Amino acid sequence: MSAGGLNRRAFLGRGLALGCSAAASPLLSTVTFASAPWDARLVVIILRGGMDGLGVLQPWGDPAFAALRPGMEALRPGSPEGAHDLDGFFALHPAMTPLLPLWRSGELGFVQAVSTPYRDKRSHFDGQDMLEAGTAEMLPRFRDGWLNRMLQQVPGLEGETAYTVGVPEMLLTRGPAHVMHWSPDAALDLTPQAQRLLEMVMHDDPLFRDSLADAVSLAQAKTDSKAQQKGAKPSAGHQQLAAYAADKLRGDSRVAAFSLGGWDTHNRQDQTLAPALTRLSDVLLTLRADLGPVWERTAVLAMTEFGRTARLNGTEGTDHGTAGTMLFAGGALRGGQGHGRWPGLAEADLYQRRDLMPLSDVRLHAAAVMQGLFGLNRDVLEGAVFPGIDMSGPSRLVL
Known about the structure:
Elements: H1 8-14, H2 16-22, E1 31-35, E2 41-47, H3 53-56, E3 57-58, H4 65-68, E4 84-85, E5 91-92, H5 100-104, E6 108-115, H6 124-133, H7 146-152, E7 162-165, E8 180-182, H8 192-203, H9 206-217, H10 225-229, H11 237-249, E9 253-260, H12 269-291, E10 298-304, E11 324-329, E12 338-339, E13 360-361, H13 362-374, H14 378-385
Parallel strand pairs: 2-9, 2-10, 6-12, 6-13, 7-8
Antiparallel strand pairs: 1-7, 1-9, 3-5, 4-5, 6-11, 10-11
Pfam families: DUF1501
InterPro entries: DUF1501, TAT_signal
Protein name: DUF1501 domain-containing protein
């Protein structure tokens, strides 16, 4: 039966029990840990659904922004509940207020107008695959992901080199480098094919799509038994996931990767973006607090498959776009500033007169961070990890 022939409501009605189980499972999120012979730490967070970079890091200094986003006037810097001015041009969404101390201390930053080489079709599935595969074109079959290829280049990996938390594995970490799996307690048996079908069925229904995203984001990790033994107050799933990652990274692990959902803001973006930003803020603050002194040697990269349209749509949301924003954090990176060139928001400056114009490849920034943190050879990064990229341009992300 084709996807178009499937009745969404009937499917969801029959799958109610599955939905309840999904709330207790990571579903779309996995966590990978790797040990390696260096002291720096790298955390990669995939923001699934297409984060609206213009809504997160708002370019109020561009005169075209207010006209493109009339529903965001209440967020203008200086308003009672407005965005926080960062540099006279960009302002940070108020849901990320808890991260302002990181910005001021140089531990939080952004790269605007980034993208993968993926263009025009704007499919979540293809876009995420290309982001995680790290390739310049859509290959018939993705065999491995760029983080796994990076691990393949490191000699001397021993013991539990890497393992994933959740179901199923991430393409980002798939490949010959050995990966072990760990799953939280959950009564759920969902194949990757069934997962994709569930995503497709729910995609065009904002009620069920957003409910699924919330359930996934709030159920991404197993409860930290150590915290329970100490009588600590239980935290939300995304915070538990970050705490578990920090616990591993304080030990022998050096690399962690996981995903956060809830970024598909087609409708009422004023209501749907803030919860996702709050969860991301919680994750970053949990990592910082729980890593302790290790945070100074840590780089966190938060990447999404594509940005969203420059204009609000008829339901006060944003549709799938092209260029977006990469967020980064950690004591090892040069925060407190925005990186990258700004393309402008005049209609003639937009990609296909609808999207933020991509000016840099997000893979280049990831490669530069790995080079600066781990000392990986440029030839290895350009040839094996991200085939086809050109790292001749300077990068200023790593301190």
